[in-house]
Amino acid sequence: MTRAKPEDDEYWNSSKFKAFTFDDEDDEFSQLKESKRAVNSILVDEDEDEDDVERVSWSGEPVGSISWSVKETASSIRSGSEQSFPKIDTTPSLSKQGSGYSLSSLFKGNLHDLSPEETVRRMQKGRPFSLEKFRSLQDKLLLLDEAVAVYDGNVITAVSQILFRELMARDVALRHYVHYLKEMGEQKLLLMHYKEHLNIKDEGRRRDFLKSCLSLPFSQDDATHVQDHYTLLERQIIIEASDKKADAEIFKKFPRKASILNMPIITTLYYSCFYHYGESEGTFSSPSNIRKTFRISEKQYILTALGARAKLKSWFDVDSLFNTKNWLGYTKKKSPIGFHRVVDILHKNSAPVQVLQEYVNLIDDPDLKLSGALKYKCHDVVINTYRDLKDRQQLIVYREKLERDSPEYRKIQELLNNVQIRWKN
Amino acid sequence: MLISYQKKNKKKHHHLISSQLHSSLQKELLQFLLECCVGAAEPFYHPRRPHEVFLNPFCRPACQHRCKTRSASSQVYSAVQSVVGSLHMAHTEWKDAPGLPDFSLLKRLARDQLIFLLEQLPGKKDLFIDADLMSPLDRIANVTILKQHEVDKLYKVELKPIVSSSDQLCFLIRPRIQTVKWISDLVNADKVAGRFRRYKIIFTPQKFYACETVLEEQGVYGDVTTDEWNFYILPLDDDILSLELPEFFRDNFLEGDQRWVTTAGSALRLLQSVYGSFSKVYGIGRCAKMVYESWRELMEDGEQRTRQPEFAKVFLVDRDVDFVTPLCSQVVYEGLVDDLFRIKCGSVEFGPDVTSSDKSIKVMLNSQDKVFSEIRNEHFSNVFGFLSQKAKNLQTAYDKRRGMDIQQMKAFVADELKGLKQEHRLLSLHIGASESMMKKKTKQDFQELLKTEHSLLEGFEIRECITYIEEHINRQVSMIDSLRLLCLLSITENGLLSKDYRSLKAQYLQSYGIEHLLTFANLRQLGLLEEQQAGETLTVMESKVGKLVNDKTVGKLTDAFSSLAKKSNFRALSKRLALVPKSGEEYDLRVPRDMAYVFSGAYIPLSCKLIEQVLERDGWTGMEEVTRMLNGQEFAVTGGSSSSEARSKTDAQRIVLVMFLGGCTFSEISALRFLGKERGCRFIVVTTAITNSSRLLEALLDNSA
C-alpha cells in the first residue's frame, strides 16, 4: 500500500474535483476489491440464516454441532475465504441500522457518492475522502457505526470530532470523544473538575477552589476526603504563615527544609510532632489537634510520633509514647504496633544500644527477639536468651564474636563456669 | 527397543534401552509410554515398527507425572526416568533449536524510510524529536546519518518556545494533540513575527486525523506538510520486538481509546510481509480480537505472499487478562534490574554505586553481552554463584600469561586479551549491579515484602497481609509498592471487604496525598482495586434465604450471585491452572522444574500458563471454564488449509510469536524462554512496551497536573 505523495495530498484536500494521480490505477483496483468484499460480506450475512450447508470449522468438527458451539461460544468463527483468515465476531457492535444504502454507489468513483463503509475504509488507508455527503443524522450515524465496527481509533476520533451531537447514545465513540476532550483540556467531569486544583499554583486560590468543590455531589466516601483536603490546606496555610517567621529554639536547631504546604496528612502530622510537640489541643499546629481533626488511628499516630521524636533523639518522649499505668500505678509499656517494628524505627534513627535493648526486650515473639538482638548487637539480650534456652554451644560461639575481657565476654565466661546450670548441650 | 525423538534437522536421536529390560517389561514400558503420549499433538508411534516410540517433547512432564502417580514397576520407572532424562539433556543442549529470523531487517527498513522522508525536505534543517522517540531513534540511526541528510541541529521537543535560526524545521513526533498544538503555536508566532520558514511534521508510527484537525483549527494546515514514518517495531533483542508505545496501556484499557489498535495490526502486517504469513492465530482479550480483525483487514487488502513463513503461530494477549503477574516483584536477574534501575529501550544506566567510580555508565543489555545473556533468566539467588565462578575462570585465563614466551604472549594478546578484557569489564559491572541490588533490597526488607506477596498469591494468612500493607502505608514507604500490594490483595481476593477498602483507602490518602482519589478511581475502573459490593449483599441475601430453603439451593444462589459480579476469579483460576504450587514443597531454584521459578517457585505467570496450555491443546478446547472466568473473548483461527500440512514439519512451526497488548514484563519473557527450552520451540515476544509494576501503576496515577 503506497501512500499518496504529500503534494497529491494537498491537492486532494484542497480540490473539489476528481483528478488523476499516479495512484489512480491502484486506487480503482482496490476500490473494485473493496466493493467485491462489501458485496461478499452482505451475502455472508444473509447466509447465516440458512443452516443447510454443513460448514466445518478448522478443528474439523461440523459447525453447529453442540461441542462446536460450546467451544466457540465466545469466539464464533465465520469460516472465511479459502486463502485468508476468518473473521471473528467481536464485541457487541451496534446492529446496522437500516442497511439501505444503495449498492450502485459502491461502484462509483465520486468521493461524494461513497458509502459509509467505503468512506471509512478510505480514511483507514489515508486515501482522499469526503464527509460532506453525510448531512442527515441517519447518514452520520451510519458513518459512525462503520468507524466503530472497524476498531480504528484514529477514524473513530476523526468522525467523532464532527459528529459530537450524536455521540451520547454510543458508548465507545463517546469515550473516544471524552478522551479527546480531556486532551483538549475541556473536561468537566466530577473528579476531573477536582483534579483541576493541581493546576492552581497559588495556595490561597487552591484552597478556595477546593472549598468550591465541597458542594459537588461526590460519593459519601469521597466527599469526606475532599472535605479533609480543604481543611488540610486551610490549616497548612495558617501553620506555614506562622512557622515561616517562627524563632523558637527548635526551628534554629533544625531549620525547615521545605514548606508544609500541599504535603500529605501524615507528613503534616510528622511535622507537627517534630516542631510542635506538646502544644495544647487548642492550636491548629498541635499533634493532638491534627490527630483528632483527621481521625488518625492510634497505630498511625504512634508510628508517626515515634519517627519524629526518635529523629530528635528525645528518648524520653519515645518512652512516654508507650508507657501505660495500670490500676496499681505501675508503668508498663504497650504498643499497637509490634515492638520489633518499634526497634526497627529506633535503629533507623540511630538510637543508642541501651534504648534499643530496652525495646528488644519487649518483643513478644522469642525468635523475633533473638534475631533483633543479634541484628542490633544487644549483647545482654542475646546472652540471657541463650542462657534461658540452656544453649551452651551458642553461648560459646557468641563469645568468640565479642571482644576479650569486655563485660559481655566476662558475663558469658561466668555463665559457662556456673555449675548450677543444666546445659542442654 | 528404541526410543526416538526428533530434532529440527530431522535426524532421529535414539535412545536404546532394550539391554536394560526384559521383553515383558518392554511391553509394559511401551504401554506406559503410549498412555502418557495420548493427546500429544505429534505422531509418536509407528505401527509397522512397534519397537520404536517417537516422543513428543511436549509430553515430557506428563511422562514424569504419570510415572509418579501410576505405580509402574521400578525397572520401568527407572527406564522412563532415563528416557526422560535424555530428553531433558537434549533440550538443555538443544543447539539446533529453531533459528530466529533476522530482525535487524526491520531496523534497516525503518532507517531507509526515515532517510527518504528527510530527503523530502531538501536543504539544511533543524530536527525536533519527541523525548520518548530519542532512544528508539538511537537504536536505528545515529547523528552521522542524520547529518548526512542535512539535519543541522537536533532538539528535544519540550513544548516551550524555540531558538532556531534555520529556515526549515522538521518535527519527528508521536501523533499527540498537545505536540501538534505546540507546533501550531510556533508557526503562528513566526507568522506574527513575519518570519517565513518551511515546516514538516513526521508522525510516527502513523498520523491521526485528530492531529490534522488541530492544524486546521489553528489555521496552519497549509503551512505545515505532514508525513508518516511507519516505524512500527523496534527489535530490542533477538527475541524481543517492541512497539515502544507505553501509552497504549492507559489509552486502551483505562480511557477506552482504540487509537492504537490499527497500529498493532499494522505491526503484525509488517512482520507478516517481511517474514511470511502465519498459519494459526490464538488470542484472548477484547483488544486482541480487535487487533486480529484490524490485521486481517489489512492483510486482505495487500498482496498475498506465498513464501515460506519464518514463524507460523501467533498468540495475542491483552494485559488485562493477567494483572497479577506484572504486579509481582521480579526476582529473575533481568526483571530485577528493570525494577531497580529501569531498563530503557534495551539499555540501562548504572550509577556510581554500581560502577564504583564517580561516573555513571550506560550499558546495552542484550544477548550480545555474554555475561548478561547467561544470567538474565536466572533466579537472583543463583547469580552470585555464577558470577564468582565466572570470575575464577577469568582469573585462570589471565594466569595463563605466566611463563609464556614472547611468541605465545603475542598470540595471547592478539587472540584472547581483548575478549578477556571485555569479559572482565562486563563481569565487574554485573557484580557491581548485583551488589547494589542486594543492598537496596535488604534496606527495604525485601524478604518480608516477598513473603506477603507469596501469601497473597496463595490465599494464606490474609489478615496478616492486610496488617503488613497497612503498616507499609502508615510508614509512608514507597507509594508505588503500597499501591501494588493493595492491588494484589484486591485481585487475588476478588475485591476488598467494604470496611477494609474504606479504611485502607483512607490511610493511603492520608499517607500519600488526598489527590490520589483520582488514582483510586482509575484503579477501580480497571478492576485493579475494588470494593466487594455484590459480596456484601450476597451474604445478607444468603443468610436470609438460607433460613427459608435448604443448603443446596443456597449454594446455587451463591453461584448465581457471584457470576453476576465482575470478578477477577484469581483464586479459582489459580486452582484450575495449578498456578501456585502447594506450600511446603521444596523448590530447587537452580534446577527449575516449571515457569514458577521466575517467582521463586511461588507462582506460574498466568499469561504464560495460558500460552502453554493453548499451544499444547492447539486451541482452547477443554479450557472452557478458564476462559469463562477470564470473561471469554478467546479465539483460535487458522488461515487457509492448503499448505499447512507441508509446513508443519518446518522450523517455523516451532517459532511462536506472542504479542502482549498493553505491555509485558521481563519475568514473562524469561518464563517463555524457559518454556521454549523445555518444549523445543522458541518464543518471540512482541509487546507494545516493556512494563513492570511501577510503570503499570504510574500509568494510572493521577496525582499531578
UniProtKB/TrEMBL annotation, chain A:
Residues annotated as transmembrane: none
Zinc among keywords: no
Main location: cytoplasm
GO biological process: intracellular protein transport; vacuolar transport
Keyword Zinc attached: no
One term under GO cellular component: early endosome
Keywords: Cytoplasmic vesicle, Endosome
Span list, region Disordered: 79-99
Domain of life: Eukaryota
Subcellular location: Cytoplasmic vesicle; Early endosome; Late endosome
Protein name stated in the entry: Spermatogenesis-defective protein 39 homolog
Organism per entry: Cyprinus carpio carpio
From TrEMBL, chain B:
Signal peptide, first to last residue: none
Pfam families linked: Sec1
Chief location category: membrane
Biological process per Gene Ontology, one example term: vesicle-mediated transport
Compartment(s) of residence: Late endosome membrane; Lysosome membrane
GO CC term (a single one): late endosome membrane
Source organism, top-level taxon: Eukaryota
This protein's UniProt keywords: Endosome, Lysosome, Membrane, Protein transport, Transport
Similarity annotation: Belongs to the STXBP/unc-18/SEC1 family.
Protein name: Vacuolar protein sorting-associated protein 33B
Lineage: Eukaryota, Metazoa, Chordata, Craniata, Vertebrata
